[in-house]
């Protein structure tokens, strides 16, 4: 009862951490039926592409096997060499099928669960050799399901093969009356047809089994609400997670800040280090507001973005340093910097008016000379 209640309590989907831990242990969704289909389909495709070559090779091999040379009969000591050559020739005929089957056996599992090599799965585990644990695995519900699937698959494929052979029985019986090479080609066509029908049956089974395996794997990894809360609690206390969270927050904040630069009224800079973007809307703001700021490479990015959007850039090192040190992004500027910023904004408004005049008539407004301001001392 407790195990049933525990299973019923696991109503939450597995967290990304639980999924990662499961992959490390080698616990991923796999479908044997999908692998079987890929292997058989690969073999069928190989036979379709190389049917003539394989049929001719098989005919030659059978002719050599069934018609040994007379000296071999007279010299039994050469029979071993003859059989060795036959084995090598048979392997050469079957090599394309063996190679494709090997590759399909690798690709098949990857199609569902992806590529995964787990070192933990290779570690010795006493439970694997413990007879009691082995009996538990044999009589587990999963083993019974796999046994049922194997029996159903064998029955279905056997029925398909029997039905196909029954429809071609006359052709199969007539093969013995044909010359060897045509008989091999004819037999190859019959085998391809039978293999095609069986491949279709395997495809149907795989289409049922693959979703079931995904569902079963997800169900196996389900968590209770308490497990989810405990995992979140442990993750929040992890220095690595906190570091990633801070890094992500910084990236989001920086991206949002850079998106605000094109809407700024002016960028105040110290050409070598600082850049601060300001915006002022007299109808909505009590004072100018900092929309972006940065030093070194970030300051360079702010300046480049301002140039791209034709935002005026004012070179005022003391004011740039003071704004950077004393005002955060999205905050209003300090009151002790009102006068200096007012000079800059006055220049910006005059510059806009000058640009609107036909052919920029009249002299260009002079850039204000901003002297020392509170907090604008040079870096030591």
Automatic annotation (TrEMBL):
Positions of transmembrane segments: 34-62, 82-112, 187-215
Gene3D superfamilies (UniProt xref): 6.10.250.2080, secretion proteins EscU (3.40.1690.10)
Region (Disordered): 1-23, 228-248, 359-380
InterPro entries associated with the record: FlhB, T3SS_substrate_exporter, T3SS_substrate_exporter_C
Localisation: Cell membrane
GO BP annotations, alphabetical order: bacterial-type flagellum assembly; protein secretion
Bilayer disposition of the protein: Multi-pass membrane protein
Signal peptide: none
Highest rank taxon of the organism: Bacteria
Alphabetized UniProt keyword annotations: Bacterial flagellum biogenesis, Bacterial flagellum protein export, Cell membrane, Cell projection, Cilium, Flagellum, Membrane, Protein transport, Transmembrane, Transmembrane helix, Transport
Gene Ontology annotations for the cellular component aspect, listed alphabetically: plasma membrane
Record field: compositional bias (Basic and acidic residues): 9-23, 228-243
Pfam families attached to this UniProt entry: Bac_export_2 (PF01312)
Membership in a protein family: Belongs to the type III secretion exporter family.
Role this protein plays: Required for formation of the rod structure in the basal body of the flagellar apparatus. Together with FliI and FliH, may constitute the export apparatus of flagellin.
NCBIfam families: flhB (TIGR00328)
Protein name: Flagellar biosynthetic protein FlhB
Taxonomy of the source species: Bacteria, Pseudomonadati, Pseudomonadota, Gammaproteobacteria, Nevskiales
């Amino acid at each position: 009862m407790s195990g049933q209640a525990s299973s019923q309590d696991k109503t939450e989907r597995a967290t990304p951490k639980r999924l990662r831990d499961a992959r490390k242990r080698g616990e991923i969704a796999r479908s044997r039926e999908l692998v079987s289909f890929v292997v058989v389909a690969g073999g069928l495709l190989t036979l379709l592409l190389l049917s003539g070559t394989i049929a001719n090779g098989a005919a030659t091999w059978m002719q050599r096997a069934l018609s040994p040379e007379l000296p071999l009969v007279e010299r039994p000591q050469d029979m071993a060499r003859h059989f060795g050559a036959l084995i090598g020739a048979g392997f050469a005929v079957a090599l394309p099928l063996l190679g494709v089957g090997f590759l399909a056996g690798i690709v098949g599992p990857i199609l569902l669960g992806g590529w995964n090599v787990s070192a933990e799965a290779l570690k010795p585990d006493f439970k694997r050799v413990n007879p009691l644990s082995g009996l538990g695995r044999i009589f587990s519900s999963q083993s019974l399901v796999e046994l049922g699937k194997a029996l159903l698959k064998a029955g279905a494929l056997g029925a398909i093969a029997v039905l196909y052979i029954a429809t071609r029985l006359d052709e199969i019986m007539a093969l013995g009356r044909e010359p060897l090479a045509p008989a091999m080609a004819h037999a190859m066509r019959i085998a391809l047809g039978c293999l095609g029908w069986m491949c279709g049956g395997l495809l149907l089974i795989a289409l049922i089994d693959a979703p079931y395996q995904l569902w079963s794997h997800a169900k196996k990894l389900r968590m209770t609400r308490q497990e989810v809360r405990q995992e979140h609690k442990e993750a929040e206390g992890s220095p690595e997670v906190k570091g990633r969270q801070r890094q992500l927050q910084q990236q989001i904040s920086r991206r949002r800040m850079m998106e605000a630069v094109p809407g700024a009224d002016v960028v105040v800079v110290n050409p070598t280090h600082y850049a601060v973007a300001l915006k002022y809307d007299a109808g909505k703001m009590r004072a100018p507001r900092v929309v972006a700021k940065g030093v070194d490479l970030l300051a360079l990015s702010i300046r480049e973005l301002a140039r791209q959007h034709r935002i005026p850039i004012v070179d005022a090192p003391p004011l740039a340093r003071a704004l950077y040190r004393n005002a955060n992004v999205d905050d209003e500027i300090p009151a002790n910097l009102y006068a200096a910023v007012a000079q800059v904004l006055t220049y910006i408004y005059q510059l806009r008016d000058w640009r609107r005049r036909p052919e920029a008539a009249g002299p260009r407004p002079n850039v204000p000379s901003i002297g020392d301001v509170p907090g604008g001392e040079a870096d030591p």
